[in-house]
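Reviewer comment 2.1 asked that we show a complete input and output for one of the modelled complexes. We chose the PRP case, as it is the one discussed in the main text.
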Amino acid sequence: MTTGHNVHLLPQTDQLRAIHTIIRDRDCTRENFLFYSRRVIRLLLEGGMDLLPFTKKQVTTPVGATFHGLEFASKLCAVPVIRAGEAMESELRDVHPGIRIGKILIQRDRRTKLPHLYYKHLPDDIADRYVLLLEPMLATAGSALAAVDVLLESGVREDRIIMINFLSSPEGLRRVATERPRVKIVTSAIEDRLNEQAFMVPGIGDFGDRFFGTT
Ligand code: PRP
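Response of the prediction step:
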């Protein structure tokens, strides 16, 4: 599929494919699932932070020379969509220890697959911040778009939302691109399609269940 300009697919290296091969296997142990999915999460978070704005900064190196560098130029926060989004929190704290974290709890109705917002708690000044929206699965995109709506209602600018997403469906990406074209998405894989149960194929199953051991 051709990805829109706001879809940032991680480089599809053999190493990434080997990691996906481990974690997509239905017989993968939970220990391996945690270990290898966290490696991908780390890459996704680094990819998301690459999309933030930077300003010029000079420093003097130990040999007395000037290095013409850059520094982060924005206020940032992260908002995991509970529950699966919380799987990304420990890697997030590794790359950005002091980051402000909000929460949005959205669950899909088991039958209709429609998202329902149960809870939100966001930083007071979120409207001034860039937001890493942690949502590992983009299937129908219903949950992700509901989470984006919560952020927009809180005053976040659409072009300041960077969705950190593990697996995405072509349908979900198209829907986000149509309804919220300025939202950026970083993902590690784009699947073939959705099945009748709105699961991605070939997919990874229920990411939250596998990560938190509730299968
Ligand atoms: C899963 C997943 C996403 C959502 C994706 O959540 O974590 O939030 O479904 O599907 P969609 O794009 O069709 O909305 P679920 O409601 O199963 O809860 P979980 O986070 O506890 O796994």
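The pocket of PRP is lined by residues 81, 83-84, 107-108, 113, 115, 135-144, 172, 198, 206-208 (CB under 6 Å). We note this here for comparison with the apo prediction described in Section 3.2.
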